[in-house]
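Input record, target 12 of the design panel.
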């Protein structure tokens, strides 16, 4: 399977981000890819973990549009987005198959609560809650173990994904400059 990685700078307009992803899917298809993988929160960047327009998954018309684009291009789509979940939010990855069906959902397990030497402080748990399930999904020729960003600091997750049959590990991220270092 040939994978295309879409390195994008997501913004605060889901419609604009979805249009960019749809264009990237066309380009990936033209380049012979079978799947397009996007960064964490590609559909809507909730940079400060406080955006008012974070919605339930089913309330993003852009998700339905990208499901149609998956059908049109015949591509797998690995899509990052924030979703409303009760009183909190979840940082989610959707895996959409070439028929446009969501075949997997992964909610980032480990929330990002850190204090950096620079004085920068993140308390993702103020607004976000972690998921609880490890997810391995069949994507044609391989089994993808799903994770997101800060999950990479927790090796037990990757052990569980490998033991669950993962051939490939996905770790979409949207690091800030200080945290990326």
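The sequence produced for target 12 reads:
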């Amino acid at each position: 399977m040939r994978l295309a990685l879409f390195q994008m700078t997501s913004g605060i307009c889901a419609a604009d981000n979805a249009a960019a992803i749809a264009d990237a899917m066309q380009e990936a298809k033209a380049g012979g890819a079978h799947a397009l993988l996007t960064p964490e929160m590609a559909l809507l960047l909730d940079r400060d973990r406080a955006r008012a327009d974070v919605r339930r998954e089913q309330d993003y018309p852009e998700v339905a549009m990208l499901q149609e684009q998956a059908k049109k291009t015949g591509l797998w789509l690995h899509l990052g987005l924030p979703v409303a979940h009760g009183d909190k939010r979840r940082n989610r990855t959707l895996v959409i198959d070439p028929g446009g069906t969501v075949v997997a959902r992964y909610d980032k397990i480990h929330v990002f609560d850190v204090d950096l030497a620079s004085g920068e402080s993140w308390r993702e748990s103020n607004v976000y809650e972690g998921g609880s399930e490890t997810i391995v999904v069949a994507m044609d020729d391989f089994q993808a173990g799903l994770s997101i960003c800060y999950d990479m600091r927790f090796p037990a997750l990757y052990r569980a994904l490998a033991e669950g049959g993962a051939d490939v590990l996905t770790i979409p991220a949207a690091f800030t400059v200080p945290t990326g270092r």
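Helices lie at 14-30, 61-73, 155-163, 177-180.
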